[in-house]
Amino acid sequence: MPDRPALMFEGEQFTFSQVQERVNRLANAMADLGVASGDRVATMQVNTHQNVELYFATALLDAVYVPLNFRAKAEELAQMLEIASPKVLFIGERYLPLIEGLDWLSPEQVVTMDSASGPGQHSYEELLQAPPDEMHFPEGDNDDTTVIMFTSGTTSIPKGVQLTHDSFASYLLATVEPADPEIEETNLLTVPLYHIAGLQGALAAVYGGRTLAIMRQFDPEEWLTLVQESQVNRAMLVPTMLKRLMDFPGFHDYDLSSLRVVTYGAAPMPVPVIRQAIGEFPGVRFINAFGQTETASTITMLPPEDHVLDGTPDEVEVKLRRLSSIGKPLDDVEVMIVNEEGAPVVQGEVGEIVARGARMMKGYWQQQDATVDAIRDGWIYTGDLAYQDEDDYIYLSGRARDFIKRGGEMISPEEVEQVLMSHPQVEEAAIIGVPDLEWGEEVRALVVRRSGEVGETDLIDHCSRRLASFKRPRSVVFVDQLPRNVMGKVMKRDLREEYGYPVGQ
Question: What is the spatial distance between Cα 298 and Cα 295, in angstroms, rounded to a whole number?
Fold first, then answer.
């Protein structure tokens, strides 16, 4: 379907043949800049059609695509760039000040994506003037790295997850119907393309021959307008987005009848929210997709039929219970729940979710110790704790490594703790996640002060200047001391039991 719209973005649209030409031009220009097999090509920009084009151009050169979180602050960005060492950085104009102090990054390595270039720099539109005639063809293997995607770790150092061509191809071949000239669909992309769900969603649309409508960033009114005007059929939302849509004052004024499938995930979905959504989106088939960057997206799924709340009272009760689950493993992925020794637990017992299959990550970029810890005997240890019921449905119970998931974003407590403890009036600090109906979890700080002169607002502002906005604490509780075990480790479970109440209570 060369003439079918492939990408739609802010009033512009490009057919599949136009996208192919733009990708060829971009690949030729990048080759002229010296990008070759194995080189990293980084990008920091909100969602645009350019990000999708850039992935394919990078892949044509057997290079490695590195999407960076556009919410990162200067220190965080510097860390990720130092780890990835990109040959070229594609960046939005508003983020240029973040790289001013990076002496190793020359102007010739920078491509501005939405503005005229500065001295020595290149612009995206300038690169698109390259001739489209020369065709590049990837020569790499299925297990070669095609994407490095950063995720928060258990330390303040971000980890670059290496995903291979097979990480994406195996997922798409197993879960997406190939393009059909008789079927026309439009996908609405709101999840950031630096997130595995966003990138997989974009590639699924291309493979499936669907039109991909791209939102720069999520906005309830814009989302509702796009669904109505573009007759959107499919969408992926994190729980926070779904709640904000239904809370929007004009929600019922929009015609959303074109919607057929809504996939949600990336964070725990509160049962009251999904129950409300089932009523507010009649005729929509809901899918709960669970996975993480290291598993290249979905490994378990709660299918549409489990969201249909009809039947006898007993059947409805069972379905309501299953709404709090993450469903069952997909057919092409092996999933187990194991104890600390790596042995399978008995039914109903809590353990860690492990998975293996073709789509799992290759490892962490240049972090062998972290790779060995995460991949054992071919199994990815996800860090998520869960149990499985008698019907094989899996229910999350927490996280083995105390990650916090806020609105689909992964937050490392240790990273926030280090920032807090850099404040001169903070003696000790511990971070926990507390339940929140809108965001899934919020960040709470437990702080031991050196003096009574510092307050909650002071510490939140201190973190805001050094961390991405989603990582900063939303509340601070001052305590006399932190509970520790005999080895000196802070007992987070005790803190969660005492201070784990929602913000505002």
Answer: 7
